Amino acid sequence: MNTNLKKISLAATLALIVFGFTLIQPKPKVPLDGRTYIVELYQDGKEKKYEDDDLKFTNGKFKSVLFMDWGFANAVYNCTAIDTTSANKIYTFDCETKPNDKNQIMIWSGTINGDDIEGTAELQKNGKTSKSFTFEGALKQKPGSQKKTTTPTK
Q1: Distance between CA atoms of 117 and 148, rounded to whole angstroms?
Q2: Residues of 10-31 as b/e, b for ≥16 C-beta within 10 angstroms?
Q3: Which residues, 6 or more positions from 69, have their beta carbon under 8 angstroms from its beta carbon?
Q4: CA distances for 91 relative to 20, 29, 80, angstroms
Q5: Cα–Cα distance for residue pair 66/3, rounded to 1 Å
Q6: Structural domains of the chain, with CATH
Q7: For the purposes of burial, counting CB atoms within 10 Å of the CB of 58, is it exposed (0-12), middle (13-18) or buried (19 or more)?
């Protein structure tokens, strides 16, 4: 084999090895991943609770179980650490869904303080909000956990 062919072969082999390692590198874990919160949802301007919902954070995506029925799929969420040094770690999050078949989107934002969550959700179409919600709740505990989940009342 001539020298140039050996160099090209070696370079191609090294490129494949480097590319292979980048494929198997784990994704950076977002701090909220693996958590599910049980929340009470209230529509703005109404006293009575609108509905209960499960808010799930998985693999960098946010999902509202309730609003999946409205045609909203998982959405990539942003997470900002506010305080990670105290016992109750504090994060904020936000996300915007892709449009459903009615060309509506949901815009979510909230604050997580320890095991508690609160925030807002807006249903929008063409940049105009048609419904606004507030939510509050707590982390869903895994089976066998000692801590009980309580949902605050409004």
Answers
A1: 15
A2: eeeeeeeeeeeeeeeeeeeebe
A3: none
A4: 34, 14, 6
A5: 64
A6: 35-139 (2.40.128)
A7: middle
pLDDT tens digits, one per residue of 10-53: 555 545 454 555 555 555 567 899 999 999 999 999 989 999 99
Nearest by Cα to 117 from 60, 67, 54: 54
Q: Is 130 helix (H, G, I), strand (E, B) or coil?
A: strand
Measured distance CA(96)–CA(18) in Å, rounded: 35
Q: Which amino acid appears at position 124 of this protein?
A: Q
Q: What is the CA radius of gyration of the chain?
A: 22
**Residue type at position 100:** N
What tokens appear for 64 in the block? 């509202």
Banded pLDDT at 149 (limits 50, 70, 90): very low
Q: Are 126 and 99 in contact (CB under 8 A)?
A: no
β-bridge mates for residue 35, sequence order: 57
